[in-house]
Amino acid sequence: MRIDIITVLPNLLDGALSESIIKRAQDKGLVEIVIHNLRDYTSDPRRTVDDYPYGGEAGMVMLAEPIFKCIEGLQSEREYDEVIYTSPDGITLSQGESNRLSTLGNIIILCGHYKGVDHRVREALITREISIGDYVLTGGELAAAVITDSVVRLLPGAIGDESSALSDSFQDGLLAPPVYTRPSEFRGMRVPDVLLSGNFAEIDKWKFEQAMERTETLRPDLMNSEL
User: Fold this and answer.
1) Considering the domain 2-152 in this protein, what is its CATH number?
2) What angle do CA 110, 41, 67 make, to 5 degrees?
């Protein structure tokens, strides 16, 4: 898989994409992540990537020209399954969407910034708009890192125990059940006896019941939603 990220703040992504599972996945050759500085695709000495909006609204808008130059240049080298724009208008990122993206071959993520991009970019180039929540960030770099992390960890071989990803919250539409580790008793608090019983049928039943209870209590909206 290849993920190309287009940004005006490349340094903001360097650290986030060079640690833990993402780093191991790159080292194993499971994913190639390439960060593109949008200023490298400008044509003026000041490397301008934004301008004032028509209509007099406050704030700045990302220029169409460098974005078109960057994306069309990438598309001339390979086919991309999705060109994603990080936007508060987009669909909210879900586990189901991350699962879908993890099955693709190549994707581009354009990080929004300022007041957004010239709308002609969205009309002509973008195939998917994704939000990570109903709030506004300074730029889309953190959202791009979240999307990348949620996708890369699902690639076969990225996690040592692949079954671990399958038992994550939201994979089956439920929150994960409580988890415990050693010691079995800590400050008077004991691990539930069923987890120490060795009866895996009962353990699975307990986990499902706990997942249902936690979801109904903490995220009742998930009970009738589709991922």
Assistant:
1) 3.40.1280.10
2) 35
Instruction: Dump pLDDT digits (tens) for 75-91.
Output: 999 999 999 999 989 99
Stretch 203-222: mean pLDDT, rounded? 93
Query: In the chain, what are the domain boundaries?
Result: 2-152, 167-224
On the 0-12 / 13-18 / 19+ scale of CB atoms within 10 A, 17 is buried
> What are the residues whose beta carbons fall under 8 Å from the beta carbon of 68, sequence distance 6 or more?
121, 124, 125
Who's near 211: CB < 8 A, 6+ residues apart?
A: 172, 174, 175, 176, 177
The CA-based angle 28-29-34, given to 5 degrees, is 125
Q: Cα–Cα distance between 125 and 150 in angstroms, integer? A: 23
How many CA atoms lie within 13 Å of 41's alpha carbon, on the beta-carbon side?
22
> At the fourth CATH level, which superfamily is domain 167-224?
tRNA(m1g37)methyltransferase, domain 2 (1.10.1270.20)
**Rounded-to-integer distance, Cα 165 and Cα 31, Å:** 17
Chain centre to alpha carbon of residue 49: 24
Does this model's pTM top 0.85?
A: yes
pLDDT higher than 70, residue 225: no
